[in-house]
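My main concern about presentation is that the manuscript never shows what a single data entry looks like. For the editor and my fellow referees, an illustration may be useful. For illustration, here is how one protein appears when written out as sequence plus structure tokens:

***
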Amino acid sequence: MIAESQGAPFLLNFDERAIAGLLREARMSGKEDFINKDNVWNYASVGCLENTMVGNDRSGTVDINVNLYKALELTLGRGYDLITYKDSLWGKPYPRKRHSFDTGDPGKFKTFEEFYNAFEKQVEFIIENIARLYDKSNIVRAKYHPTPYLSCLVKGCIDKALDINQGGAELRYVTVEGVTFATTVDSLLAIKYLVFDKKICTMDELITALKNNWEGCEKLRQIVKNKAPKYGRNDDEADLLAQKFMKCWTDEVWKHKTSITDAQLRPGMLSWNYWISDGYILPASPDGRLNGEFLSNAICPVNGADTKGPTANINSVGIAIGGKSENGIILTMSIIFRTEQAIRLHCLLQW
């Protein structure tokens, strides 16, 4: 029934990982008095898979959605957008804009490690900037958006005489949901493969191809699509880079708190529909994606990249996670039992 209805209803069966994530979350935020082995079993899921304690938790999920690929674009663009773009709803054109600082001319980096270090600085900048922006909205919400009924039901609020939006709850988290993870990983792998390992093209040539949406560079694009390593195939090089990147952005998230409510920022990976809508405004990416095409969803590999089967896919995800992203992660896999190959796989799984 689930296969025929595309996942509805869906089954929740992730106690082991959810509990481990909550306990790590408690250690990271100094909240072990409120989340520990004696009570963590009483957690619940918010919406899809986001973990929360019951009755004393602000339960903040999908508070911030950060487009991780933008950090790579800003590395290639020296702090600028690579292209102008049009608003997907109104069609309003936006000129190229400077969003960040210059991390150096990417064409002059001698090694992939130099390029990656510059990229990490852009990741840190984006997360720091978006945390600061959220803090401003949090201050406004605390002042103008009281929720008295909800606050009466959440432990801590009455004792402190504070609304839940003013920091009254015993547990206060703000979730930063990472979007475009695999698109970013595969793009980093493509840059390493094309520019530094195989020297098939220069960095400047690759950037020009991206600005032109790969026009006139189809041969190069097909090399990327068919030859460069990809996350989701149980490939050590790809999966270890994915793990390194996961550590980079999640560690940065844990450095930040809100100023007025003392809420701890924490990482999660629930992309909602942003992996679709953001694709319309982002330029072509080094992994061979064209401007306007979908980006990657949550922790999932790029659509069509997981060509080695479900086991390889799961192995890659397990390595990439590395115990991070405590507020939950979505891995969506569709196994369609309607082709001859799928029927054989079904028989194998049953055996």
Observations:
- The beta strands are 44-46, 50-52, 64-67, 85-86, 93-94, 173-179, 264-268.
- The mean pLDDT is 90.
- The longest helix spans residues 112-144.
